[in-house]
Specification:
Layout: H1 3-37, H2 42-84
Helix pairs in contact: 1-2
Length: about 100
């Protein structure tokens, strides 16, 4: 992979990570606002906040694995596309 290809690949990965972070933060903010504005007693709201916090923690623990797997799949697809764009021959795999 040439330097330009690596830079392009890494740049797109960074943009995807930023978009994913924005999506997660937005979802959390919206969920928190809905919980705080819903007509419930203080005890019910605290219990719901506790459940949401636990669920969010579980999702946050799984997120790095999902991002890594998505990144690996994107790099593989990118590499395959480059190979097929060169008449089916990759510069790394003669044949």
């Amino acid at each position: 992979m040439s330097r330009d290809e690596r830079v392009t690949c890494c740049h797109h990965g960074s943009a995807a990570g930023s978009a994913l972070t924005g999506l997660v933060v937005g979802a959390l903010a919206g969920g928190l606002a809905a919980l705080l504005l819903a007509p419930r007693s203080g005890a019910e709201t605290r219990a719901r906040l506790r459940r949401v916090a636990e669920d969010s923690r579980d999702r946050a623990e799984r997120l790095p694995v999902a991002v890594r797997e998505a990144t690996e799949a994107a790099v593989e697809a990118f590499t395959e596309t480059l190979g097929s764009g060169q008449g089916g021959h990759s510069s790394r795999h003669p044949g």
